[in-house]
Design brief:
Elements (H helix, E strand, L loop, with lengths): L6 H11 L2 H21 L13 H26 L4 H5 L3 H5 L5 H22 L1 H7 L7 H26 L5 H25 L4 H32 L14 H7 L12 H4 L14 H10 L6 H24 L4 H15 L9 H5 L3 H5 L5 H33 L7 H28 L3 H28 L4 H8 L6 H6 L20 H28 L6
Length: 544
């Protein structure tokens, strides 16, 4: 019953692989990888295949790096909703009451969620086979890379299933999964590049050591998820877990959130104990006092502890040791808000639709603007406060490291970029929540939009630079960076005091890209606000 006669596995496979989305995703995945190979294909008229041309090796490395990043982003999106989806559909109690063993349920869910992604990876084999005759890499290295890719996908899927068993919402499970997977992805990329000149050692580690540790972690996480289903916590009506905040605080490991103390009350205010004031916005009052605590504080505690654990070593490296690379720490803060910020707003309107209370909200005397800002302020407040915790190291680095004293303008610019990122991410998430029907789809839509705007332009510029394109082409591509805070952060100038023994500035910068980013963000926010107001006023399809 674990694999061949597992009804959970069979049902999930039929439901996932028969959808139009499965075929569309397969086609887009193949087109994306084929485009990378086409752009990176060696441009030399003659290649000396006996000397392992560097252009061919560069092509294969780019192919696997792109596929690894794409797979690491997609694996949690498939696996993080395996168990939380049952809770959101109110079928979790029925699943627990079935004669299936918890291990069979977890295994079936994980295999079904990763089968589609495994098909995508295997479908890329014909593309990489075209690159092998160019030389530069052996067949064994390709097989090791594919093994490492499959092992990573299984590990990331297990992390998603593990997180899914501890949360009641897919959005919470997804963001915690991404926060855990992010450092693993970074370490894997650094490992692969650091051992580039030691092919035999890298091959042995990829084939023997890494799969053993990954398999052990997968077994432990699947066993923990199965154990949680075997002895589930208190379950109330429709499969919703009963969360006792007092008991949760007593059993919490590490950080404990106390809503009656500062600064916890900024992002987790205490429960409402008095009547609503006259003239107050009822949407804001309801959201700020009930939505945050409806699922407990586990997600908030994990987000804060994981983010601070990663921030401490990054602070020491990029703010004191390699202080000329301060933009990399700002990039970490931006990535954190990209992952965490949309969670608190992507379900603002879709949750009303899922609870079937959207009709009631639309028939009130509240104006569209009151509904929008009541929903927006709550989610923006939480994401901004959580992000500000990571800005303290940046402020301390600017004060304690005297090299930054002559770069005050750049530091202010980085704080401004992070503030704009918080605003843009929140507005985009709220807009996607208004135009989507499910919270999970709204969150994924938000991530896709932000990835295209933020990651797309610097990725294109880096790809052109790696492939030795003309400087004119690279300069034109840099102008697309006005949509990306990453490009804006790296475009801030830094003087020569950050580079010891050098008279050249640490970063020449490009202030036009920085100002262009602020202008583009203002236009984006304004356009989204008008789109949301028009959507609420028309009410076309909102109540369906």
């Amino acid at each position: 019953m674990y694999i061949f006669e597992n009804p959970v596995l069979q049902r999930e496979l039929l439901g996932n692989l028969r959808t139009h989305r499965a075929f569309i995703l397969l086609g887009l995945y193949q087109l994306l990888l084929a485009s990378v190979v086409l752009v990176a294909w060696p441009s030399e008229q003659r290649l000396d295949l006996t000397s392992n041309p560097p252009s061919a090796a560069k092509l294969v490395n780019l192919f696997f790096l792109g596929q690894y990043v794409i797979a690491s982003l997609m694996a949690p999106s498939f696996a993080a909703g395996t168990i939380t989806g049952e809770k959101e559909r109110h079928t979790y109690e029925m699943l627990l009451a079935s004669p299936l063993r918890p291990g069979a349920i977890v295994l079936g869910k994980m295999i079904a969620s990763l089968t589609h992604l495994g098909m995508l990876i295997l479908a890329s084999l014909p593309i990489i086979v075209l690159c092998l005759p160019l030389g530069g890499v052996s067949v064994y290295e390709v097989l090791a890379a594919y093994l490492g890719l499959i092992v990573s996908v299984v590990l990331f899927g297990a992390i998603g299933v593990f997180c899914s068993s501890y949360f009641s919402r897919t959005s919470s499970s997804l963001v915690v999964s991404y926060l855990i997977i992010l450092p693993l992805v970074i370490l894997a990329i650094l490992f692969w590049h650091s051992l580039e000149g030691q092919g035999e050692l890298r091959l042995k580690l990829a084939l023997l050591v890494i799969p053993a540790f990954a398999l052990s972690a997968v077994i432990l996480m699947c066993a923990a998820a199965a154990g949680r289903m075997l002895y589930p916590p208190d379950v109330g009506s429709e499969g919703n877990e009963v969360v006792d905040l007092k008991r949760e605080a007593e059993e919490a490991v590490g950080l404990v959130i106390q809503p009656d103390q500062f600064p916890d009350r900024l992002f987790a205010p205490p429960k409402k104990s008095e009547l609503m004031a006259d003239g107050a916005n009822p949407v804001y009052d309801k959201e700020i006092h009930s939505e945050i605590f409806s699922q407990g504080t586990l997600m908030l505690r994990l987000v804060i502890q994981i983010s601070m654990l990663l921030a401490i070593p990054l602070m020491g490296v990029f703010l004191f040791y390699l202080d000329e690379k301060i933009a990399w720490f700002t990039m970490y803060v931006i990535v954190f808000n990209m992952l965490v910020g949309p969670v608190f707003l992507a379900g603002s309107m879709t949750s009303e639709r899922e609870r079937q209370t959207l009709d009631l909200l639309l028939t009130t005397t509240l104006t569209p603007w009151q509904i929008i800002w009541g929903k927006f302020v709550v989610g923006f407040r939480i994401s901004a406060v959580l992000t500000s915790f990571l800005l303290w190291p940046l402020l301390l680095g600017g004060i304690l490291n005297y090299s930054y004293w002559s770069n005050v303008g750049t530091l202010i610019g980085m704080f401004a970029i992070v503030a704009v990122v918080c605003l843009v991410n929140a507005v985009v998430a709220l807009t996607c929540s208004l135009f989507q029907r499910k919270t999970s789809m709204a969150l994924m839509c938000t991530y896709i939009v932000l990835l295209v705007l933020y990651v797309g332009p610097p990725t294109v510029v880096s790809l052109l630079a790696i492939l030795d394109f003309p400087n004119e082409s690279i300069a034109r591509a840099e102008w697309f960076g006005v949509t990306s805070p990453f490009s804006a952060a790296f475009a801030l100038p830094l003087n020569s005091e950050l580079v010891e023994g050098s008279e050249d500035p640490a970063n020449v910068g490009n202030l036009n890209v920085v100002f262009g980013y602020f202008v583009f963000s203002l236009c984006l926010v304004t356009g989204n606000v008008f789109a949301m107001i028009a959507r609420l006023r028309s009410r076309n399809g909102l109540s369906e």
